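Sample 3 of the quickstart, ligand thymidine-5'-diphosphate:
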Amino acid sequence: MNSNYIAFEGIDGSGKTSIIENLSDILNSQNKEHTIVREPGGTSVGEGIRKLLLSHDYQVNPLAEALLFCAQRSQLIEEVVLPSLNNGVVVLSDRSAYSSVAYQGEGRGLGYEKIYQLNDISIQSNWPERVVLLDIDPEVSLSRQQVADRIGSDKVEFFQKVRKGYLKLAEEFKDSFLILNAENNIEVNIEAICNWLEIDNCK
Ligand code: TYD
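Result:
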């Protein structure tokens, strides 16, 4: 395996979680030590912030939203991600700082560069080494969703901007990004990920 810190990204309903579960089963079958973290969340502080961010009970302004994502991320990096990586444990991250660049930077219009810099500070420049981007048309992904949280229930136009943000990131960081069509059969995408991450004996 050629990387230890891998993020899975995509708009709501792109199927990141099933991909991560499949990959985790493969790593388990090889006794490869790994941990799965989710953002927002992954620590007790982070899970508290998650409730503030996603509940329909709060009206969070865009900048406060970006800062709350950064706060939970700073806690997660120090408490879980860096200690795991330092112990040679692979980290599979369900979303990462790249989500904020796409959602808050492009989607909310706070600025791609500004949100990139804010996140760089929050994570002390520890960006994921590899990013799997599950790309999908928002019209399709939104129709797959059952119960949407506050951010996930935004309009299709918002998710079109988020998707644009992701594609811009993938273009800027070509060497770290793998773009997959989220509508592909899951086995096809798992095989592509295994090849890209050089995971041996992938089923
Ligand atoms: P999540 O629980 O991962 O939902 P999903 O299963 O749809 O991926 O994420 C919650 C929501 O928070 C989702 O709408 C994406 C949004 N989000 C941001 O806007 N910025 C961020 O930095 C992160 C991590 C998530």
